[in-house]
Amino acid sequence: MGSRGLQPLLLVLLDCWASGSAQAGATSAVTTEGFNSAEPAATTLWPALSPGPPETPRAPRPSSGPRPTPVTDVAALCVCDLSPARCDVNCCCDPDCSSMDFSVFSACSVPVVTGDRQFCSQKAALYSLNFTADPPQRVFKLVDQINPSIFCIHITNHKPALSFINPEVPDENNFDKLMKTSDGFSSTAESDISLTTKLDAPSAAKYEYGAHLQTSDSFLRFPSPLTSSLCTDDNPAAFLVNQAVKCTRRINLEQCEEIEALSMAYYSSPKILRVPNSKTEVPITVQSVVIQSLNKTLTRREDTAVLKQALAEVGDIRICSNVVLEVQYSLTYTDAGDVTKAAVSLLLGTVSSAVVPFQQKFEIRFIQQNTKPVLLSGNPGYVAGLPLAAGFRPRKGYPFWFCQGGCLPCPWAWAVLLFMAEGPVGWSGQSPPERPPCAEQDCLAIEGVRAPVLFGYNMQSGCKLRLTGAVTCQLVGQKVKSLLKGQGFPDYVAPFGNSQAQDVLDWVPVHFVTQASHVKDACQLPVALAVEVEWTKYGSLLNPQARIVNVTARLIASAFPETSSGSERTVLISTAVTFVDVSAPAEAGFRAQPTINAKLPFNFFFPFV
């Protein structure tokens, strides 16, 4: 095909979402077939809501051009009809099958028949079996299906572009004309074959990263802002893509009871398919329902029954209660790409005319089965005020190991770097959470009280230790060293806030150094533990991430003369943590000048060479 036939082509618009939502109120014809009856009934499908303001029922707006018409009638198309003039088993679209044949079918081998997938709106024929009827009946629906992709054909101004045309074969009469109108005779057979193979390839038997989560009728909708801050309800949720978004909702308060994007059932009623194109459905369980009043007080409901919006008048103000303000999805998946469990937590509130438009929050997260979620201190870089993640390698031969803050099923133990906090704690930088002061400040009296090391906060703590002649110097030294290091002092620190425990080579080792003064006939006692954390800014200058590059722990010991019997001496024991920024100054870099690397097609001189 030459470039002349490609000039008009197709017009792909982003507002196909709005056009799809205009058809949300359409009804589909449902036909139920039994032994002796075929009764049509009208059934309203789950509507696809419009992101545009205001969210009130409205008639479809006129299109700016001709809408593409389907070439194939999906109601008459049957891909499982393999035997002519004979009913194929479990082929619900076979015209040769009678109601008697449908009553003995176990399932529909082809439940959905669609047309061209490139259209934003397309007809779809849905086939299913009603086993509750006696005898079982076939149910047929013809619906308008919305394409979740933003790259779809909304209108067309060149209908021949929807199908392939027969290219003009060059000969001795038209060769000169084709040479003038074409850039050459480069073959596109390989690209056409690869594109056809991708379109005709069978669907995957598992969810892959970024794949749309399918439901029993469409896909799991995750409202989010696209081209503006307004909520777009036709946005599909993607597998293994954790999201947390906020968007603005414009509504007509008088019709809040009719808007499904505000209802609790809209987010809890869909059933997610365990794997793509399967018949196993995973229902969404409502974990919690919290009610927020107009004065922002929160009340958790004991039951999780579905509540409907209610419009009421309070004095001169009209309010709408039980409106969804926040939605949190939690999906559990397996290594095989199956969705095994789905849960949702909802925050319902009351909306008045004074707060319209209002803001909604939506969040979705994925948790792998048989694993425990680990709280991160940043993603990826550390966030100021969050604890440092630290760990240690258990020795070989130990069947168990102890870790503070939880363990991961791996050869590493996960912990939080703790800090001695027996005495008053001093902070620099931002104000951390308050801790009650210790009145006694006795190191041995309140042993075991420790606080986590927070990234970016320089901390100092101390306590008093009374030395008497009744206790030997060696015993006191071991006790003080154990007091300063704590139980299970970590050997490694995570470089980033989201570092995984299985990435052994990425973790930063803790360099432990002991400093002592050499004085004869003196008692060597550890008096301080100073931890220095060196970090740098990593990544882009626009969004630098904090990365730990070195950790040094210094145990400082001092010499004290032996305490005589009956006398006492008070020693101050202290710990300190310091964060040092070792970032190198950024250097401006320039890319190399572009070079032209042009090559002629291999058949450029055809047929002369």
Automatic annotation (TrEMBL):
Residues 50-68 have a biased composition (Pro residues). Keywords: Cilium biogenesis/degradation, Glycoprotein, Signal. The keyword Signal applies. Residues 70-175 form the Tectonic-1-3 N-terminal domain. Residues 204-368, 439-582 form the Tectonic-1-3 domain. GO terms for biological process: central nervous system interneuron axonogenesis; cilium assembly; dorsal/ventral neural tube patterning; in utero embryonic development; neural tube formation; protein localization to ciliary transition zone; regulation of smoothened signaling pathway; somatic motor neuron differentiation. It comes from the Eukaryota. Residues 1-24 form the signal peptide. Belongs to the tectonic family. This is Tectonic family member 1. It comes from Equus caballus. The lineage of its organism: Eukaryota, Metazoa, Chordata, Craniata, Vertebrata.
